[in-house]
Design brief:
The chain is 30% helix and 30% strand. By secondary structure, it is an alpha+beta fold.
C-alpha cells in the first residue's frame, strides 16, 4: 500500500476502512482481514503521532478493532532494541514494539504483546529468533493514548503467538 510507505496515514486509514466493508461474516477472521485491521491501527496511530488527530479521537477510532484478532506486518526480532522491531520487555513479561516513522523521530505507538508461549521470554529460545523477520497474531486487548509533546497510542495485546517467521 503506497500510503504506508509514504507515511500518508489518512489515506491508509481510508483504504483500510473501505476494505473492511468487503469482508463478510465468513471472511472476517481471515488472515487478510486480520492484517488489514493491523494496517488500520497503524494508520490511526500515525495520525495521532503526527498530530493530525487528537489522542482521544485516535483511541475512539482504534477501538473499532478492540477485541479483534490482528496479524502484524513483518518485523525483525531483537532481544534488545527500540524502534520498529519486536524486543523483550524490560520486565521480561512480554514482547514490545515501538512503532515510529521511518527516521525514528516520531513515535506513533507503543505495543505490548503478552506472549502465550512463555518459553519465548527465555534466553535459549528467543536467542534463536534474533534477527529473524516474523509476524505476530494477537487479540487487541486495550487501547489507550499517552505522551504530551509526542502523542501516541499505547496498545496491549493478548493471546499472542508467532504467526509465521523466516526459518
Amino acid at each position: 500500500m503506497p500510503h504506508l510507505e509514504k507515511e500518508e496515514w489518512a489515506g491508509a486509514e481510508k483504504i483500510a476502512k473501505e476494505l473492511f466493508k468487503k469482508f463478510t461474516k465468513e471472511t472476517d477472521e481471515s488472515v487478510d482481514a486480520q492484517a488489514m485491521r493491523y494496517i488500520y491501527l497503524c494508520a490511526v496511530a500515525g495520525q495521532v503521532g503526527d498530530k493530525v488527530i487528537t489522542k482521544e479521537e485516535g483511541v475512539k477510532r482504534a477501538n473499532l478493532i478492540k477485541g479483534k484478532t490482528v496479524v502484524t506486518a513483518y518485523c525483525v526480532f531483537k532481544p534488545k532494541g527500540m524502534f520498529n522491531l519486536f524486543s523483550i520487555s524490560e520486565e521480561n513479561k512480554g514482547w514490545n514494539k515501538c512503532f515510529s516513522n521511518n527516521s525514528a523521530t516520531t513515535i506513533y505507538m507503543f505495543e505490548h504483546y503478552d506472549m502465550d508461549d512463555k518459553e519465548l521470554l527465555k534466553e535459549p529460545v528467543y536467542s534463536r529468533l534474533e534477527g529473524k523477520e516474523m509476524r505476530l497474531k494477537a487479540v487487541v486487548k486495550e487501547i489507550t493514548a499517552g505522551g504530551f509533546a509526542m502523542p501516541r497510542l499505547d496498545v496491549n495485546y493478548s493471546n499472542v503467538d508467532i504467526y509465521d517467521a523466516e526459518p
